[in-house]
């Protein structure tokens, strides 16, 4: 079976490209890479590309000309959330302190047994989880609907 080695990037359509890019830099430590401006009538989508230096994860912040302009709702078909893994419990606690320092609303630490996480929302309501794996998932023998 063909496979892949890691997730390399994701792209989010947002209501305000600059506000969202600033939030990801201020709150999650992403760094600006490049801005792609597209002249009116030309093909392409304006976007800002950000890089998270520690993980190498790229995030595209898109300004689709035909975007709906409403807030993200995880119950719609499509993406529900995105999780970034932290190294250990002390890193998760450090994130909680950092979010408090920045004045970013967040959930309490949720404990699922196999993982612990904090949830935050970006300016468009996209849910981001800061995730600590306690017990790694393993493939099941077989899946049956």
Protein model, in words:
The protein has 145 residues and is an alpha/beta fold. Helix content is 18%, strand content 30%. The mean pLDDT is 90. The protein has 2 helices and 8 strands. The chain starts with 8 loop residues before the first strand and ends in a 12-residue tail after the last strand. The protein is globular. The strands form 2 sheets. Strands 1-4-3-2 form a 4-stranded mixed sheet, with helices on one face. The chain has a 4-stranded mixed sheet with strand order 5-8-7-6, with helices on one face. It has 2 domains: 7-66, Roll (2,3-Dihydroxybiphenyl 1,2-Dioxygenase, domain 1); 80-145, 2,3-Dihydroxybiphenyl 1,2-Dioxygenase, domain 1, CATH 3.10.180.10.
Short note summarizing the structure:
With 145 residues, the chain is α/β, with parallel strands linked by helices. The chain is built from two helices and eight strands, in the order E-H-E-E-E-E-H-E-E-E. The longest helix is centred in the middle third of the chain and has 14 residues.
CATH level 4 superfamily of the largest domain? 2,3-Dihydroxybiphenyl 1,2-Dioxygenase, domain 1
- The residue-averaged pLDDT reads 90
**In sequence order, what are the helices and strands, one letter per element?**
EHEEEEHEEE
Largest sheet: 4 strands, mixed
The CATH C-level class name of the largest domain = Alpha Beta
Fraction of residues in β-strands: 25-35%
What is the annotated CATH architecture of the largest domain? Roll
Computed Rg: 17 Å
What's the arrangement of strands in the largest beta sheet? 1-4-3-2
Q: How many H/I helices?
A: 2
The proportion of residues forming helix, as a percent range, comes to: 10-25%
Secondary structure category: alpha/beta
Low-pLDDT residue intervals, each spanning 5 or more residues = none
| Strands, total number | 8
Instruction: Write down the domain tally.
Output: 2
- What is the approximate shape? globular
CATH fold category name of the largest domain: 2,3-Dihydroxybiphenyl 1,2-Dioxygenase, domain 1
Distance between the termini: 21 Å
């Amino acid at each position: 079976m063909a496979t892949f080695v890691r997730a390399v990037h994701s792209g989010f359509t947002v209501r305000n490209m600059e506000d969202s890019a600033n939030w990801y830099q201020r709150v999650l430590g992403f760094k600006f890479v490049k801005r792609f401006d597209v002249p009116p009538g030309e093909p392409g989508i304006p976007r800002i590309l950000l890089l998270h230096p520690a993980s190498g994860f790229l995030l595209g912040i898109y300004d689709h000309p035909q975007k709906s302009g409403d807030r993200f709702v995880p119950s719609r078909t499509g993406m529900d959330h995105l999780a970034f893994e932290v190294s250990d419990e002390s890193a998760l606690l450090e994130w909680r302190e950092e979010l408090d320092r920045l004045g970013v609303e967040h959930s309490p630490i949720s404990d699922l047994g196999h993982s612990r996480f904090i949830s935050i929302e970006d300016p468009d309501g996209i849910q981001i989880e800061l995730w600590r794996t306690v017990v790694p998932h393993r493939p099941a023998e077989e899946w049956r609907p």
